[in-house]
Write a structure and sequence with these properties.
- Among the domains are: 105 residues, no CATH class; 77 residues, no CATH class.
- The chain is elongated.
- It is an alpha+beta fold.
- The strands form three sheets. The protein has a three-stranded antiparallel sheet.
- It starts with 15 loop residues before the first helix and ends with a helix.
Amino acid sequence: MGAPAKNKNYRRELTIQALNELYVTKKGLVESYLPKHINQDRMLRLIYSAFTSTRGLSSCSALSIVNSIMHAAQVGLEFNTLQGHGWIIPRWNSRAGVMEASFQPGYRGLIDLAYRSNLVTAVASGVVKARDDFEFDDGTQPTITHHWDLTKDRGDWVGAWARVDVKDGRSIIEVMQRSAIELIRDTYAPRKKSGEMVGPWITHPDAMIRKTAAKRPLKFAPASTELANAIGLDDVLESAEPIPTLVNVEDFQGTDVSKEDLLDATEPIQITGSKAAEDEVLQDKLEQTGMPKKQAWAETIFKRLGKKQQAALKAYAAVDGKGTAIDLLAGCDHPEAAQQLVDTATEVMNATK
């Protein structure tokens, strides 16, 4: 995506409000890529959820985040949800020397796209363990037999298999050894600047093992444009090639968004919305005031909101009568619940106007 402007004195805060303004600037361009089942409102909710719940995303260049959103829209997959259809992940680009966001299709996302195409009738996969009874017969009509005893320990995993059945009656089978899968993981999994691995290989390892095996037969099956694009994008992430861009700096000419705003990625310093900044704020409050941790967390979340969201939450709290806006946020068990609270408050305020 190109190297950022080398201005060491320049620092900006990439907040959800700033990202939302950037998104709205090119709203029409994003709309042209959205599938029928994802509208603008749903996309904005996905962006908000991903930005507030994914550690390190606020350290990525704004242009890389916008391109990740566009890639997800192009293949018709939601991102950073419990369904695991795909993820927008921060990764260190050693060539450019910056953190960049990239969209990576998930195992369930590829399967969903395969079924949506109406060209694939079944997708199956499995992780093979050391004590499983597993046989693979290759040839003109390959077959797989995979049995295990639910009452016994299966041991560590040794490989994976996948089968894709297509409408013409063919079955395409792939079997991969653990060493081959781990080579792909260790070479291409997203990492921090420190080299620490991040993303679905850490949070959803079983699904990534299955996806690595399943992607191979899906390449040889009839595919829709969305599935072909998703597999192609995933292949790029498993190569040394740069991630293709759908939006460039030139697309923002004539707007109020500067080149620096798009390309300059914050270095690992304290950034509004980042986990590092949140942890520092929490620690300071705990040490200086003895404030309960959930209360400190709630204040941090409140300060990240836009002015209209803060006003909506204050008004909602006044009507609710159960405390202040901070008290309501402190009662949320996780960021998703806080997001739902803010969304509800905003909808109520808009409805009463």
